[in-house]
Write a structure and sequence with these properties.
about 140 residues, alpha+beta, GH92 mannosidase fold, five-stranded mixed β-sheet, 8 strands
Length: about 140
């Protein structure tokens, strides 16, 4: 996690059927253990904001683990709700919201709905994000394995 080429590793579990829970566990553990509000609050050199961007994406509940694929893997959000306002010149002023229904110990995605429909996989696409709408993550204290 301390070197930029390795920052996507916790999200790679989403590429294997039934293993997305491992991503959620590792992402939350990394956020809780290695990112703090103090002077040494990052697990390495931030290199123009790369580690901070990892944390912001992860805290929202998704991350572009392979930006070329235009796929964002689901992680473990720390916010109850977050809204990304998309640039009006490119996306018509739309917004994309993530709402997580969770308790303090809920770090696993129990179910996910995008625009009211169940997501069959542990990721969303760039097109789904820039189309606007809402992603709802029902969180659980236990992995669904």
């Amino acid at each position: 996690m301390w070197n930029e080429p390795d920052i996507a590793f916790p999200y790679l579990f989403t590429y294997f059927d039934g293993e997305a829970w491992r991503t959620q566990k590792e992402v939350r553990a990394i956020m809780d253990l290695h990112f703090t509000a103090g002077p040494a609050g990052l697990p390495g050199n931030d290199d123009t904001g790369t580690l901070s961007a990892w944390y912001v994406f992860s805290a929202m509940g998704f991350y572009p683990d392979n930006p070329v694929s235009l796929r964002y893997s689901l992680g473990s959000p720390v916010f109850d709700a977050v809204t990304v306002r998309l640039h009006p010149a490119y996306h018509g002023g739309k917004s994309f919201s993530v709402r997580s229904v969770q308790g303090p110990r809920d770090i696993y995605v129990g179910s996910a709905q995008l625009q009211g429909r169940d997501l069959p996989d542990a990721w969303i696409t760039h097109e789904e994000i820039v189309s606007g709408g809402e992603l709802v993550l029902e969180m659980s204290a236990e992995p669904d394995i």
